[in-house]
Design goal:
- By secondary structure, the protein is α+β, with helices and mostly antiparallel strands.
- The protein has one domain.
- 14% of the residues lie in helices and 27% in strands.
- The protein contains three helices and seven strands.
- A seven-stranded mixed sheet has the order 2-3-4-5-1-6-7.
- A hairpin with a 3-residue loop joins strand 2 and strand 3.
- The longest helix has 8 residues.
- The chain starts with a strand and ends in an 8-residue tail after the last strand.
Length: 128
């Protein structure tokens, strides 16, 4: 499972936010102590890993953090097995509309699904 994006939200953003989604068509959901949520489909799955220990945040420079519109941003690593599944989840009506999606410089075609202003899809997004 090597494909991922990072979801960035305000201080209220956590696994509970994700857990409130419907995940249409999933077969099973497993939560791990509020730190991780795994959603299993027939052939694919997606895993949401909350940055409870600050390791994901540590990948961002202070300059990058200061460009986010949140006083205390929270991060969730979203790992997925299929790009269409990622697009379906991010495009669902119950996906949080107030978060940013960091694609780590990879154009995944998500601008067709969400407002382009919410996508951090260039390697140096904080300079724009």
């Amino acid at each position: 499972m090597g494909m991922w994006v990072i979801l960035i939200g305000d201080e209220r953003f956590n696994i509970g936010t994700i857990k409130n989604m419907k995940f249409t068509g999933c077969e099973r959901i497993a939560e791990h102590e509020g730190k991780q949520l795994d959603v299993f489909y027939k052939k694919d799955y997606v895993s949401f890993q909350y940055d409870y220990d600050g390791l994901i945040r540590g990948d961002y420079s202070p300059e990058e953090i200061s460009c986010l519109p949140y006083k205390e941003p929270h991060f969730i690593l979203m790992r997925y097995t299929d790009l269409d599944l990622l697009k379906r989840i991010i495009g669902s009506t119950d996906f949080p509309g107030d978060i940013f999606i960091d694609c780590d410089g990879v154009n995944l075609g998500l601008e067709q699904i969400v407002d382009d202003a919410r996508l951090l899809n260039t390697e140096m997004w904080w300079l724009y």
